[in-house]
Write a structure and sequence with these properties.
The chain has 583 residues and is mainly α. It has 2 domains: 406 residues, no CATH class; 76 residues. The protein is 76% helix and 2% strand. The strands form 2 sheets. The protein has a two-stranded antiparallel sheet with strand order 1-2. Strands 3-4 form a two-stranded antiparallel ribbon. Helix 12 runs parallel beside helix 23, helix 17 runs parallel beside helix 19 and helix 18 runs antiparallel to helix 26. It is globular.
Length: 583
């Protein structure tokens, strides 16, 4: 591979050795290993058969109860609770994964509370919520007794008295509400003593070895990586700690933003130790995390939200990306096309994940990727607070507000948090639309690679008498995206085959939360810490000339906000109101 001017032209062809010596492929293999182990642990060697039998029994009870009464009886709800309680994370492997991937817990004034809690501290916390729990418990018991009495009265009339049936249904609903409130109160008295320091040390060693082996396969020094890795890991842990602080958590300033901020603070004050820099493998960490992210992008979830959500995510996203790129080139006259397209993708698709894939597709400079991610994190923090407040203030409907946020706020986690401010319905719509939008990561990377090879670099190389072949598209395409797409397809098939109840128990609360997502979150945290530690403000300064990157992001996001809101209203309330009514 040679570099001519600003154009990198690949003179050679890929070989089979690329499959175990190149970063993109190694990210896929590592992600595949984690996925395979997680699937086997919860299915073939796990509780799948046991859970399936329990769910089948509960379903038989519910069918019988549905045939008996015109409303959902107490026994029906009890059977439903029995299914809901089934969670793969409660198994031995689930508990193992939960322990060894845990993060610092919440705290208010003392950060050490996130790492260690004594038995005395746990009891003191529980004592504060005991009175509220006892009160909620008494209300639940009273509501349950009333529900039993009302249902027995309806049963005595053979469920033929509409008035008695209505009373019974109302009393049962009141019991369910009281039971839900009791569950929330119970969590405040279920605090236990813990010490996560041993698990953090074990996790650090595990990830240092896993990624270190990958570095060795790429021809780098495992020893140098392993020696520097604890430095990156400590910054990631501190980022999680600050993100778990009560006020920080309330305003959505999470580990991603703290990781970049802390890393930059270190890098631009005392300086990142030279021995830590070999472990700042930003792309290796996040590419592996993105392969695992595919497990959370399920096509049946996309279908569930319907055509409105698909239009909001897939029609608006490419439009905003293209318009923002053209705006940057023709109006702002941005000197770097790669910076222009990376910011455009980051802002229009789904934040950092899209930025990484796009940067790889157009071979943007490391500083350009860092700048794009930094701008995105700042505006994400602002939007996740400002948008829910604005939506509530002007009275925008919950579904419309959720769709609006899902299509505009960059980070997936921030979207869910912002949606939760409005309610469960908004959170569901927002998270689902963001999930649909995440599918665009691979599509965006492919078309950016295609455009860059056949248009941008042909023009640049052509001026020097060189041509870039179409075959370069494959070399340029970020291969880890294939892992993301493959994981998405695989998990979509598994989810459909398992069914709703078993899928919730085995996949959502097992394979994903007790496997792929637990490690994916850590890989992302490491990547953001590494970004900060390897960032020098002086290197970034030249890209800020005239403030064009910020102007591009603000103008592009403004256009995104207007177009997404208009499309969401048109789809959910004008063209497909019947789908909205069912959400």
């Amino acid at each position: 591979m040679v570099e001519e001017g600003n154009v990198v032209i690949d003179k050679g062809a890929s070989s089979w050795s690329d499959l175990w010596t190149k970063e993109d492929y190694l990210a896929i293999w590592l992600g595949l290993i984690i996925i395979t182990v997680s699937i086997l642990a919860y299915t073939t060697f796990g509780p799948k058969a046991e859970y399936a039998q329990k769910i089948a029994t509960a379903n038989e009870i519910q069918v019988a109860e549905a045939a008996k009464a015109p409303f959902k009886t107490i026994v029906w709800h009890t059977a439903q609770d029995d299914k809901t309680k089934l969670k793969g994370t409660d198994t031995a492997f689930g508990k193992f994964m939960t322990y060894w991937t845990q993060r610092p817990g919440g705290w208010k004034t003392n950060p050490l509370d996130g790492f260690v809690r004594t038995e005395g501290q746990a009891q003191a916390i529980n004592a504060k919520g005991q009175a509220a729990f006892e009160e909620a418990k008494a209300k639940t018991e009273a509501a349950f007794a009333a529900a039993i009495s009302a249902e027995e009265a309806a049963a005595a009339a053979a469920f033929q008295d509409a008035g008695l049936n209505t009373v019974a249904a109302d009393k049962i609903a009141q019991w369910r509400d009281a039971d839900k409130a009791m569950g929330a109160a119970k969590k405040k008295v279920g605090n236990k003593a813990y010490n996560i320091i041993p698990s953090l040390v074990g996790l650090c060693i595990f990830m240092a070895l896993v990624f270190g082996v990958g570095m060795a396969m790429m021809g780098q020094s495992l020893k140098e990586f392993a020696f520097g890795f604890p430095g990156v890991f400590v910054v990631a842990v501190l980022a999680y700690t600050l993100g778990a602080q009560a006020i920080s958590k309330q305003y959505g300033f999470g580990a991603e933003a703290w990781g970049v901020a802390l890393g930059m603070l270190i890098a631009n004050t005392v300086g990142t130790p030279k021995k830590v820099l070999p472990a700042c493998q930003v792309e290796f960490f996040i590419k592996t995390g993105l392969v695992l992210l595919g497990a959370e992008v399920l096509f049946n979830k996309i279908v569930a939200i319907g055509i409105p959500g698909i239009f909001v995510a897939w029609a608006v996203t490419p439009t905003v990306l293209i318009v923002t790129y053209i705006f940057g080139q023709t109006i702002l006259k941005m000197p770097s096309k790669t910076l222009n397209i990376v910011i455009s993708a980051d802002m229009s698709v789904c934040g950092t994940s899209a930025a990484i894939a796009t940067a790889a597709a157009c071979r943007a400079k490391k500083e350009e990727l860092t700048l794009s991610i930094g701008i995105s994190l700042v505006f994400t923090a602002i939007m996740m607070i400002a948008m829910p407040a604005f939506i509530k203030a002007v009275g925008i409907p919950e579904v419309l507000g959720g769709a609006w946020m899902g299509g505009t706020i960059d980070a997936t986690g921030a979207v869910a948090a912002a949606g939760a401010f409005l309610g469960q319905k908004a959170m569901y719509v927002a998270a689902t639309i963001k999930m649909i939008q995440n599918v665009m990561i691979g599509v965006t990377a492919f078309f950016v690679a295609l455009y860059w090879v056949t248009k941008v670099e042909v023009e640049t190389a052509g001026a020097a008498g060189h041509k870039v072949g179409v075959g370069e598209i494959w070399h340029r395409f970020p291969k880890f995206v294939l892992g993301f797409i493959g994981a998405s397809i695989l998990f979509s098939i598994i989810d459909v085959n398992l069914g709703k109840d078993l899928g919730n128990a085995i996949m959502n609360h097992g394979i994903v939360n007790g496997g792929t997502k637990a490690l994916r979150d850590w890989f992302f945290a490491l990547s953001f810490a590494a970004i900060g530690l390897s960032t020098n403000f002086r290197e970034l300064a030249k890209y800020f000339k005239g403030g064009k990157p910020v102007i591009l992001y603000v103008c592009g996001q403004s256009f995104n906000l207007v177009l997404t809101l208009a499309m969401a209203y048109l789809m959910f309330y004008v063209i497909f109101p019947e789908i909205t009514a069912q959400i």
